[in-house]
Design a protein that fits this description.
A 3-stranded antiparallel beta sheet has the order 2-1-3. The chain folds into 2 domains: 183 residues, no CATH class; 124 residues, no CATH class. The chain contains 12 helices and 3 strands. By secondary structure, it is mainly alpha-helical. The chain is elongated.
C-alpha cells in the first residue's frame, strides 16, 4: 500500500458534494447496522480467551478451576497444545505452578504496604507462616470494612514462569492488534483502488478508496448472509413437501430483491430528492435571488438539486420523527436492504393519502414488523 495517496492527491471525486452526502446519509446507517464496537468486543474476548488457554492463564484472568491447564500434555510445559476445551483424565501428569489467594475484584479492602496475593494450596489453606499472616491481615481489614472475606478473595492457579507468560501474552496481543488494524485498513484501500482502476485512470485519494473497498466487502458479506437465510427459508417452507430447485429459487428471489431495491433507490433516492430540491429552489430560493438581483439569469442543475434534495429530505425526515408515529416514519422505519424490503407497504404508507387515527397507524406498523 503506497501511503502517498493519502496526502498527494486531494482532487474531489466529482462536482457534487459526495463527501457531505456520505456523512449525512450513509455513515449513520452504517454505524447503526454494522456496529463496529460489538464486533471488536466479541473478537477481542475470543482472542483474549484463546491466548489465556494456550498460556495457561485462564484461571488468573477469569477465575475458577481449569484442571486441563494445570498439568502438562507435552514435553513443552510452557504452552498448552490441543483443544482448549479438552479435559484432563490422567491425574498422574506432572503438575507445574502454584495456587494463590487473590482479590476477587478491584473493590476490595486490602492492607496497606502488604502484598495482595498469598501462597495457598488448592483448598485455600496457607502453605507457610508468611502467607498465614498475610491472610489474617487481609481478613481483618475486610471485617473492619464490614465486608465478607470469602466473597472478596478467591483461589486461582498461577503457572510456572508467570512473569514471562504475562509478557508473552501482552506481546501477542500487540502483534495481533497490529495485524488486525493493518488488515482492516489495507484490504479496503487495495480493493477500492482496484475498483477505481476499472472505471478511471485518475489517482484518487485513498479515503475514497477505503470507503469503496469497505462497502464492497460489506456488500459481499450481506449477499452471503442473505443467500444463507434464503436457503434456510426454502428448507423450512418445504420441510414436508418436495424442495424446490435451488438455482431457480435463488434466481427468482434475487431478481425480485433487485427489482424492489431498484424501485426504492430510484423513487426515494433519486426522484423524490430531485423534486424536493427543485421545489425549494424554484419557489423559495430563486424568488429571493431574483428580488435581490433582477438581472440574474436562472441556471438550475438537476444534479445539484438532487444533492440539496437529499439534505432537505433528511432534515424533513428527522423533524417529522419528533412527532408521534405517522405514515412517513412508519414507512421508512421498515425498509431493510439486507432483507426483502416492504415496497408495497412503503409506497402505500408514504404516498397514499388516507385519514387514519394514531391507533391505526400503530397497528399498521406492528403488521409491517411481522
Amino acid at each position: 500500500m503506497d501511503p502517498k495517496n493519502l496526502s498527494q492527491y486531494s482532487e474531489p471525486l466529482s462536482d457534487v458534494p459526495i463527501d457531505l452526502l456520505f456523512l449525512h446519509v450513509l455513515l449513520p446507517y452504517t454505524l447503526r447496522f454494522f456496529r463496529p464496537r460489538k464486533v471488536i468486543r466479541k473478537s477481542s474476548i475470543t482472542i483474549w480467551k484463546y491466548l489465556c488457554a494456550r498460556l495457561r492463564l485462564t484461571s488468573y484472568m477469569f477465575g475458577g478451576r481449569h484442571p486441563e491447564e494445570e498439568r502438562d500434555h507435552s514435553h513443552i510445559g510452557w504452552l498448552r497444545f490441543g483443544n482448549p476445551g479438552d479435559k484432563v483424565e490422567d491425574d498422574l501428569l506432572p503438575f507445574h505452578g502454584s495456587y494463590r489467594r487473590v482479590p476477587n475484584s478491584d473493590n476490595v479492602a486490602v492492607p496497606r504496604d502488604m502484598r495482595a496475593t498469598a501462597k495457598v494450596d488448592v483448598n485455600g489453606i496457607p502453605i507457610d507462616d508468611e502467607a498465614r499472616g498475610l491472610i489474617a491481615a487481609q481478613d481483618a481489614e475486610a471485617e473492619k470494612a464490614k465486608r465478607n472475606p470469602k466473597e472478596d478473595y478467591t483461589v486461582v492457579y498461577i503457572p510456572s514462569h508467570f512473569q514471562y507468560r504475562i509478557g508473552l501474552f501482552i506481546f501477542a496481543l500487540w502483534v495481533i492488534g497490529c495485524v488486525f488494524v493493518t488488515a482492516a485498513v489495507s484490504a479496503p484501500i487495495l480493493l477500492g483502488r482496484g475498483v477505481f482502476n476499472l472505471f478511471t485512470d485518475r489517482q484518487m485519494h485513498d479515503g475514497y478508496a477505503f470507503l469503496i473497498g469497505f462497502y464492497a466487502l460489506w456488500g459481499c458479506w450481506v449477499v452471503g448472509h442473505a443467500v444463507e437465510r434464503m436457503d434456510k427459508r426454502r428448507q423450512r417452507r418445504s420441510a414436508d413437501d418436495a424442495r424446490g430447485n435451488w438455482p431457480l429459487y435463488f434466481l427468482k428471489r434475487s431478481v425480485l430483491w433487485l427489482a424492489k431495491i431498484s424501485y426504492i433507490v430510484v423513487s426515494v433516492g433519486i426522484v423524490i430528492p430531485a423534486l424536493l430540491g427543485l421545489v425549494v429552489e424554484l419557489y423559495i430560493v430563486m424568488p429571493v435571488r431574483l428580488s435581490l438581483n433582477p438581472d440574474l439569469v436562472p441556471n438550475v442543475r438537476v444534479v445539484d438539486m438532487w444533492a440539496l434534495g437529499i439534505i432537505y429530505s433528511k432534515i424533513a425526515l428527522h423533524a417529522n420523527r419528533l412527532r408521534p408515529l405517522n405514515r412517513i416514519t412508519a414507512g421508512f422505519n421498515h425498509v431493510r436492504f439486507d432483507r426483502c424490503p416492504f415496497v408495497t407497504s412503503l409506497t402505500t404508507v408514504f404516498l397514499h393519502r388516507s385519514r387514519r387515527t394514531d391507533g391505526q397507524i400503530r397497528n399498521r406498523s406492528a403488521q409491517l414488523l411481522r
